[in-house]
Amino acid sequence: xxxxxIRGSKFRFARSSSEQFNSILCALxxxxxxxxxxxxxxxxxxxxxxxxxxxLLPDLNMRFxxxxxxxxxxxxxxxxNQFLADILLPHGMSYRDIANLSEAAEDVFSVKALRAGKGxxxxxxxxxxxxxxxxxxxxxxxxxxxxxxxxxxxQIERPVERRxxxxxxxxxxxxxLTMMEQDLDYELAAKMEDALAWAVDFHHIQKGDHFxxxxxxxxxxxxxVGVGDLHGAYFSNSNNDHYAIKYAxxxxxxxxxxxxxxxxxxxxxxxxxxTRISSSYNPRRFHPVLRRVKAHLGTDxxxxxxxxxxxxxxxxxxxxxxxxxxGNYVKIKHDKTYSTQYLHMSRFAKDVVKGTQVVQGQVIxxxxxxxxxxxxxxxxxxxxxxxxxxxxxxxxxxxEPMAESELPDxxxxxxxxxxxxxxxxxxxxxxxxxx
Length: 435
Ligand SMILES: [Zn+2]
Known about the structure:
By secondary structure, this protein is an alpha+beta fold. It has helices spanning about 15-35, 50-55, 85-90, 95-105, 175-180, 185-195, 405-425, and strands at about 60-65, 65, 70-75, 120-125, 135-140, 140-145, 150-155, 160-170, 210-220, 225-235, 240-250, 255, 275-280, 300, 310, 315-325, 325-335, 340-345, 345-350, 355-360, 365, 375-385, 385-390. The chain is built from seven helices and 23 strands. Strands 13, 14, 16, 17, 18, 20, 22 and 23 form an eight-stranded antiparallel sheet that branches. A five-stranded antiparallel sheet has the order 3-4-5-6-7. Strands 8-9-10-11-12 form a five-stranded antiparallel sheet. The longest helix is centred in the N-terminal third of the chain and has 20 residues, at about 15-35. The protein starts with 16 loop residues before the first helix and ends in a 12-residue tail after the last helix.
């Protein structure tokens, strides 16, 4: 047995699995908070404040477009439940000033979007007087300057350098474990999963399966800040080869197989990410709330309350309403044949009303337990010609293939990416045990 290495790499994010899980939860939580529009106090995020503190202001010269030697600089990270006023009042600002600033910020970077754990700096040229600037860093890619005297707000994007890189791995147990063992970060694993989700069932991969990825890493001021585009991914699953090639042109943008067929199908497999089926389609189910046999004509997906629910395909919203049984629900008509319905939502997504055109993957609402439900879940109902069917047993329509006229351009891109992927050496692969 051998463990595999990374080619030409400088992976810096070695996270534990619990941290990865936290970051998923945290993203869900954040998404929730953002749509709540909680305003002040500043909403808490994860405990990652120390990380952000470290990235902010490693040396105090030119930063944020200022010569910091001209200022007294206070840097910190926003604490959970800390108000903007808590930060700025000690710097000579009045409540009036802060209200004016909030108003000026509304269209650029609202102070309601400030999050605990993120870094900030207060720049003061004369400490006997009011501070001059409040600088907030939502991430390493950008920062926001709040001019405290003129009530002007600007958001600055940092120049990002994209460096190509490749990686590979052989599955010992799970994809996540393999990625972690090699210091590949969560973002890259998620991108690979997105590209290949239709071809590979990542819940049922086996020892000896292996993958290769070609992607770009993003650098700001020489520091790696994340993963950019995933250009191509290869996965060998039970000795079957799967390639996903990223292709973008005027008409197309997405992942395609070697023949130029979209990797993405017309329907998502499930209306939620990171979910499990808690109750299957079953015409003879014993209903847990009604306590009698009642056909269950949907598939239940359990997830924490507030988890975003996605439209599984493009379509038009035909119903958005409430009934005692369904709770809050949305129904979408996809074409002449198919409609889908999503029950028990805690809330609807903003702007999703009857008549709205939605696209696959668009958030239409949030998991809840309204109506007849024992716990938070989505009851997902799939209608075919007016009848409810088990979508997991349906032969669903295939996506439209790429136009013939586009193929020569696509094949050129495909060939170069496939050549890179094929040249990546995964080393010795532990043979699958037959039988
Ligand atoms: Zn159900």
